[in-house]
Amino acid sequence: MPFSPTSLADLVGRFGAALHRAGLPVGPDRASRFAQSITLLEPRTVDELHRCARTTLVSDPAHFEILDAVFDAVFRGYEDVAEFRGDLNAAGATTHSKASSPSLSDGSGGSSQVVEVPVGVAGSAAERLAGRDFATLSEEELARLAELMRHLRFATPPRRSRRFRPAADGRLVDLRAALRRARRTGGEPLRLPRRAHREKPRRLVVLCDISGSMEPYARAMIQLLYCAAGASRAEVFTFATRLTRLTRLLARRTRPALALHRAGQAAPDWSGGTRIGAALKRFNDEHGRRGLARGAVVLIVSDGWETGDPAQVGAEMARLRRLAHRIVWVNPRTQSPRYQPLVGGMAAAWPHCDAVVSGHSLTAVAPLLDALTGGSPTHAAHQRVRRRAAAR
Fold first, then answer.
1. Hey, what's the signal peptide range on this chain (predicted)?
2. ∠ CA(221), CA(356), CA(142), 5° rounding?
C-alpha cells in the first residue's frame, strides 16, 4: 500500500478530522506519528493500517472502540461517525465491536472479501520517476522530483563543541554554577553541578563535478542540496575547469528551477572539461587548510574522468584525507556491477575515500545519506580495491 506524499497527507488529514469530530483528543503530534508509522511500516492491508492507527493515535484503551468505529466509517463505510460525534460515552460507541465488522476471510474456506481503502494510493508521477537514472530525466521531470527531495534529510555525525551544557553525568565540575549555589548555603557547596561538552553536526562540504559527462547528475545533486532538509548548512562548490563557490546562492529560498539557473550562471565552466586535481588543489589551498574541511564530512560528486594528471588527484585527495573526518564519493558509473576503478582520476582517488556510492537516481540517494553518517558499507568494488592495496 504505497502512499505518495499527497495521498498520505490527505489520508491523515481526513482521518484526523473525523476522529476530532467524534471527540477523540487527536492533535497534530499524534497525526504526525500516524503518518510516520505508515511511511516506515508501509501497511499492505486495511488491518495493518488499523494497527498503525491504534498504536499511534490513542493512548487510552477506553478510546479504542470509538477509534474502531471512526476507522470503519472512513475506510470501510460501516457506520455513520455522526452517531458518536462529541460524546465518547455514546451508545453507539459502546455497542460497536469487532464482531460487527466483516473480516477479510471467513476462515472456513469460503470466499474472501477484498476491502479497498478509499484513498488515492497509486504512485504519483514523481514517485514513478524516482527510480529513473538522473541522466534520462528532462528538466521538467527533474522538477517534479523536488517535492520528494524535500522529504530527505542530509545529516552528518556529531562532533564535540567547545561550549558546555549542564549534565548530571558530566565528567567536568561546573565551578561557576557551584559558586553561585554556594552563596545560598553559607558558602558551602552542598552539591557539585557537572557539565559536558555540547555536540553539533559536523560541517558538510560538497564538491560537485559539472563537466559535460556529469551535467545531468550535477543538476540533480544541486537540486537535492537545495531541497533536502539539513543541506542548507552545507558548503557547496562546483568544478569542471575551475572551482566556484555556490553556498550563498543556494541559501536563497526560491524555486528549484531558478536555483539551478542561477547556479549555471555563477559557474562559467558548466558542461566544460574536467580538471579534478586542479580543483582539489585550489580547494585545499584556499579553503580546506584554512579550516573549512577540518573535521568535516566531504562529499565529492564526480565520475572520475580527469583530463589532467591523475597523480595530482591522488596527492590532493591525500591532503584532504588528513583534514576531513570522512570522504564520500558519488560516482554514477559505479551502478554497474562490472565497474572497477582501474585507471584515471578515480583510481587515484579511490583509496582515500571512506565510501563510494552511485547516487544515480532518487532511490539510490538513500545509501548516500547513510554513507554521510558512516552507517553504510562501502561499495563492493571499493572493498576489492582496499583489499588489493592492503595485500601489497
1. none
2. 20
State the span(s) of the chain assigned CATH 3.40.50.410: 204-391
**Kind plus residue range of the DSSP H or E element containing 61:** none
CATH of the structural domain 204-391, one choice from 3.40.50.1110, 3.20.20.70, 3.40.50.410, 2.60.40.10: 3.40.50.410
Contact between 189 and 178 (Cβ < 8 Å): yes
Contact 81, 70 (CB under 8 A): yes
φ and ψ at 166, to 5 degrees? -65, 135
Residues 168-217 have pLDDT tens digits of: 888 888 888 888 888 888 777 778 888 888 888 899 999 999 998 899 99
* 227 sits in which H/E element: helix 215-227
What is the model's pTM?
A: 0.62
Q: Are strands 204-209 and 235-239 parallel, antiparallel or unpaired?
A: parallel
Q: Phi/psi at 158 (nearest 5 deg)? A: -80, 160
**Could you report the per-residue pLDDT of 77-109, keeping only the tens digit for each?**
544 433 433 443 444 433 333 333 333 343 444
In which element (H, E) is residue 192 found?
none
